[in-house]
Write a structure and sequence with these properties.
9 strands, 201 residues, alpha+beta, single chain, 9-stranded antiparallel beta sheet, Multidrug-efflux Transporter 1 Regulator Bmrr, Chain A
């Protein structure tokens, strides 16, 4: 019931707020180990979150874990989604697909693994070769939080506003935006926690 009502009861990444305004925050995140899959959303037909299922199978969220130990890995939040390099986003990375589909565009989805996995080699190896486990170094992100649905248009508007605020305040954008979603899809939309995150220098 808590998950339906938006309660976040899983591990989330630790960060330090280094700048805050009424519109957004600048956060510094430590290094983390992630499991990710890059895929063409069109291969899943109507299910544009097919990458989620691949990663959920790896950690054992839906049954037996598909890794070489096999070891169940605790779910964390958020789930991160970003468009692949072939995607041209008007903007210019904790699930929405930014790709329009039908043009061979790819999407990368990430699960941030629990902090007990300090290095990539500490995590169980995936059985599915589409899943890549790797380390990400420290990063700074500008973040705007919002509730509701994460349709393509709504997310793009949030990203455009955040970019404009960053330019206004003299911050340099260091890459494309990513979407962080903290709740499962059955959470009531007004109670969902979502964030658009833009890397900054």
């Amino acid at each position: 019931m808590g998950m339906m009502l938006g309660k976040i009861s899983v591990e989330t990444p630790k960060y330090q707020v280094i700048h805050s305004t009424k519109d957004y925050e600048i956060r510094k995140y430590g290094s983390a180990v992630v499991a990710e899959v890059t895929y063409d959303p069109d291969q899943f037909n109507s299910n544009k979150d097919g990458g989620f299922m691949i990663l959920a199978n790896y950690i054992g969220a839906l049954g037996n874990p598909q890794n070489t130990k096999p070891e169940k890995i605790a779910m964390t939040a958020p789930v991160i989604t970003k468009a692949g390099p072939s995607e041209k986003i008007a903007m210019t990375a904790p699930v929405v697909t930014q790709s329009k589909g039908g043009r061979g565009e790819s999407v990368t989805m990430q699960f941030i693994l629990p902090s007990k996995y300090a290095k990539a080699e500490d995590a169980p190896r995936p059985v599915d070769e589409r899943v890549v486990v790797r380390e990400e170094g420290e990063k700074k992100y500008a973040v705007v939080r919002f509730s509701g649905l994460t349709g393509e248009k709504a997310v793009a508007e949030k990203a455009e506003k955040l970019k404009a605020w960053l330019e206004r305040d003299g911050f340099k954008v260091a890459g494309d935006f990513v979407l962080a979603r903290y709740n499962p899809p059955w959470t009531l939309p007004p109670l969902r926690t979502n964030e658009v995150m833009i890397p900054v220098e």
